[in-house]
Amino acid sequence: MTNQAPEEQPVSAAGQKERHVTELAGPDDRWLSITDASRVARRQEHTIRTWVRDGLLPVHPERVGINKKTRRVRLSDLAQLTPILDIDAAIVTEVGSLDLVSIPRQQQAIKEEHGRLQAAYTQVLERLATQEQEHQQNLSGLRTEFAAHLSQQQGLIDLQREQHDSLVALVNVQQAQLTQLRSDFAQTVANLREGMREMNERLGKALDNAWRALEEHQQQHIHFRSEFLDRLSRDRQVTAQRLDAHDAIHAQAQEALEARFLQQEREWDDALQALNSEVAQDLAAMHGRLEDQEQATRRRLEQLTTQVEVAKSAALGSQQRLDRHNEALQEVRRQLLEEQQARLALAEQVTTLTQTKQQRAR
User: Fold this and answer.
1) Are 106 and 1 in contact (CB under 8 A)?
2) What is the pLDDT of residue 10?
3) How far apart, in Å, are the Cα atoms of 51 and each of 16, 172, 205?
4) Closest CA to 75 of 43, 41, 51, 50
5) pLDDT on residue 263
6) What is the pLDDT of residue 271?
């Protein structure tokens, strides 16, 4: 809001040099009484009145106060004649800062501002109504979409829960099978060890019997040879005369006996070697079967371990998908909460604008 340039009144007809002004020079200007002018400038009242009388300091032609004797000058005019030393020393009233001439312009400006505010308020109400309708439509669509998404997610959760329960049951069954296989493997190993122990015992007994039989045969052979030599010695004395005649026969008999002894000894050695070979083959076959069973059991254990790991991985993947679905549900809830907060803030803005309009109307 701007003020028009002050209008100075001509000199009075009495021949005085007073100059009159009726408007303030600007929004920061104000009216001062002669007493307040002397106070703020630290000058005598007589000096201020002399300036007014000589026309150096313009004065308002209208006198104010209870007795209508108080004269007023402008602060801006006083500052041109003397420095303002203490502006707070003036006794300021509402009349000092009141610009009566500019009141109609101010009223017109207030009416124009009120019209602009009224139009802005109407536009805001229209936008609010449009936004409210859009929010209602979006909220309805979002609710429908959320309900469908929630139903779908609930179905997926139920399906995943069933899959998880099935996987847990499968893992439990496979764990039981693995435990049973371990128990069977331990029992098989124990049985094989017991069989090897019994086989070793039988083999040891057979070897002991074979060695005892060989020792007995050797002892019998030694005893027979000793008896033969003794008899031969006795017969040698009896048949000394027939020794020359029977040397050939005796030599043949001796060779036959030695050949027979050697043959029996070779037969016993062959039998012992065959027994040792058969025992070694039985042991090798038993060790082979044991290794085959151990390898088969290890492969079965590895297969079961792989199946258990796959089942655990599937259960873990199901749990992760369930966590992602829960996060999606949390995000939808957060969006709904933000929408509600935005609507509350919008309602507060409408309330504030309404209150402002009511205050301006007052």
Assistant:
1) yes
2) 46
3) 12, 114, 155
4) 41
5) 80
6) 67
pLDDT of residue 132: 85
What pLDDT is stored for residue 171 in this prediction?
84
Cross-strand partners of 70: 64
Q: State how far the Cα of 250 lies from the Cα of 231, in Å rounded to an integer.
A: 13
Burial letters 254-270, b for 16+ CB under 10 A, else e: eeeeeeeeeeeeeeeee
Domain ranges of the chain: 8-101, 136-242+250-361
User: Rounded to an integer, what is the distance from CA 304 to the centroid of its chain?
Assistant: 33
Other Cβ atoms within 10 Å of 31 Cβ, number? 22
In the chain, which residues have pLDDT < 50? Answer: 1-15, 94-103
Q: What is the DSSP string of 291-342?
A: HHHHHHHHHHHHHHHHHHHHHHHHHHHHHHHHHHHHHHHHHHHHHHHHHHHH
pLDDT of amino acid 246: 57
DSSP state of 26: S
pLDDT at residue number 107: 65
- Residues with Cβ within 8 Å of 5's Cβ and at least 6 positions away in sequence, in order, are 23
Q: Do 67 and 109 touch, CB atoms closer than 8 A?
A: no
| Phi, psi angles (nearest 5°) of residue 96 | -65, -30
> If DSSP codes are grouped into helix, strand and coil, which group holds residue 278?
helix
DSSP state letter for 18:
-
pLDDT score of 13: 41
Quote the CA–CA distance of 73 and 70 in Å, as a whole number: 10
**What is the structure's pLDDT at 253?**
66
Q: In which residue are the tokens 């000394």 written?
A: 240
38: three-class secondary structure by DSSP: helix
Nearest to 2 by CA among 76, 112, 109: 109
> pTM for this structure?
0.27
Exposed, middle or buried, 164 (CB in 10 Å: 0-12/13-18/19+)?
middle
**Residue 279 pLDDT:** 60
For residue 64, what is the DSSP state? B
Residues 60, 21: contact at Cβ < 8 Å?
A: yes
> Which tens digit of pLDDT belongs to each residue from 106-144?
567 777 888 888 888 888 888 888 888 888 888 888 888
